[in-house]
Design goal:
336 residues, TIM Barrel, eight-stranded parallel β-barrel, three-stranded antiparallel beta sheet, 11 helices, globular
Amino acid sequence: MLYEALQPLLFRLDGETSHDAALRALDLAHALRLTRPATPLPGRAARVMGIDFPNPVGLAAGLDKNGAHIDALASFGFGFLEVGTVTPRPQPGNPRPRMFRLPAARAVINRMGFNNLGVDALVTNVGRARYRGVLGINVGKNFDTPNERAADDYVASLRKVYPFASYVAANVSSPNTKNLRELQQGDALDRLLGALMDERESLAAVHGRRVPIAVKLAPDLDEPAIAAAAEAFLRHRVDGVIATNTTINREGVAGMRHADETGGLSGAPVKARATMVLARLHEHLGDRIPLIGVGGILGTADAREKLAAGARLVQVYTGLVYRGPALVKELVEALR
């Protein structure tokens, strides 16, 4: 109810300003104990990647890049949270404006560019949070790190977040960092996965726990690229795949205000493409590597479509912009 009252005011602001304002308001409401306790809603439990999820509905990466709002966001009742994307060094991201709403399509275009305070700041925030539920930490590379040395950035962040993460997600699919998506394919993907898995084994020996590693893919891959990525995931024994990130395709929004802005499109228009990639991955991977479905989930039917296509868990982000926290409760109850 609170979000429904605030949404018209938030939508009068530009996308990024309203995003920041909503998080500040949520933090204040949580501090004043106006939100529900920060515990997962009771739902269908699932064991995925060796982790026990109290319900299958999670927060996608991107909303809380620095892990600064974990306790307040946990009050929505998510079964798990994913924070980031975080890079080894702080970086400002792309110039503003860089986030645009397309209400008629229930969509958002963003070109944030991994704006974040760096992995050390995120680790500090995570350490301060009271949340003890399932926490994924999404990592990427700094914009000025060449792809030939990208693995160094991912490994550096993996080392820092390892003690705090339930799982770590490698973001190789954002369209807003130049050439990042090249890491999804061929030798670049093999080198990255090899480095991450080798480092994970070393860290597991030191910390006495094996943190799962997932990879987040783009919805714009063609069939040969999906098949090749699946083979690489099996070869390197990746623990999970997140399908998918935002799209550079503008199908379904052509002619709308802001549709020509560069960046990744999320929300309802990406659903079909994201679900197609999810289904193709499931055809190649079967039950050997679990899938997390994300992209265009704004209601119960959307989430069920992801599960039918092979997902074990789902994540939301843009759906929250248009539906608010009520979406989480609706999905958890429907997916019991």
